Amino acid sequence: MEKEEYLLKKRLLELAELCFQRDVPAHSDFLNLNEQTIFYSIIRELPPVPYILAGGFELAERKIVCFLPSYMDESSFEPPVSCIRFTPLNARFAEDLTHRDYLGSVMNLGIDRCKTGDILLNDNETYLFCLEDMAPYIAGEMTRVRHTSVKTEICRPGEISYTPRFEEIEGSVASVRLDSVLALAFRCSRSKILPYIQGERVFINGKMAVSNSASLKEGDIVSVRGLGRFRYTGVRSETKKGRMFISVQKYC
Hints:
Elements: H1 3-22, E1 26-27, H2 33-41, E2 51-54, E3 64-67, E4 81-88, H3 99-108, E5 116-122, E6 125-131, H4 135-141, E7 144-145, E8 148-155, E9 166-173, H5 178-185, H6 190-198, E10 202-204, E11 207-208, E12 221-224, E13 228-238, E14 244-251
Antiparallel strand pairs: 1-3, 2-3, 4-6, 4-8, 5-6, 7-8, 9-14, 10-11, 10-12, 12-13, 13-14
């Protein structure tokens, strides 16, 4: 076991034990998809406490694990995740900023990546999700991204207006096994998809895919490192020869 994996497992188990023994809420830093898979691998070792994964919005890729005390449930618990809205002070002279530009500005503040979640670019606004206790510092200090001066506003994740852009892709497959659907979504052969699965770069609903023959269910979110992600929206019809006509929403 790699040292980083061992330390992450140890930390997650400690947080769960803290919640169980003291009956207080506890949460991790933001976990990437690989780290979320590590968390799922130790679920049977956890004490009997409820937990949720939260990233600030439905399609979040980076999430924190929250362990809930006996007096809270998912409906009453508010994850300690804040959202910072960035807008250019002068849109006319603003640069065409990228995800990397915003992430670089955060890192330049000396903030570890694990303290921040997803970054969403949405027309003239950008949303950065972060741990609640980091939001005032980031919002106060991050006044420029590259050469563009920006205005910041801390808001609750539920207050943002963000509609993901996606491309609707349809086609026929012999079955809804993972490699077939991936080949359709990313317009390549199944043989070219296989190394991504074997290289542990494919995740279904935040969990690492371990088999190219795994079946997808309607609504599953599939992420592929280096290619992108999509929502599997299901079988639309079946041909006389038994092939299935399916559709996916590939996020832009």
